[in-house]
Design brief:
mainly alpha, 112 residues
Length: 112
């Protein structure tokens, strides 16, 4: 996969490149990204290009990078005991939903 070309296709290539580099500078997220398929890498780059919020979330929670490529599944939230756990649950869910949205958009473009 040509990362530079994928980054250039985003709305703000410089910001996207900086956001990706921040994830690659973190040992944990870099290790996860290294095992990504081309589709996961492309989706990650698209997410970094469209969402500063999710980029910041991934930088603060590098383990969440592993959610890229996993579809969102509704889960019980009875186990959540405080507001911080609820926020983390919400942000992780948003990341998965955004991933699915990116995949649908990409497929729609390919089908045209």
């Amino acid at each position: 996969m040509n990362l530079d070309k994928c980054i250039e296709l985003t709305a703000d290539p410089d910001a996207t490149s900086n956001r990706l580099q921040a994830l690659l500078d973190n040992e944990q997220s870099a290790r996860i990204i290294d095992g990504f398929t081309d589709a996961q890498t492309s989706g990650l780059i698209q997410i970094l290009g469209i969402s500063r919020f999710l980029s910041n979330f991934l930088s603060r929670h590098p383990d969440a990078v592993a959610l890229i490529g996993t579809p969102y599944q509704v889960q019980e939230i009875k186990h959540i005991s405080d507001i911080n756990e609820l926020r983390l649950f919400k942000y992780r869910s948003l990341l998965q939903i955004t991933w699915m949205d990116v995949c649908v958009r990409r497929q729609n473009l390919l089908d045209r």
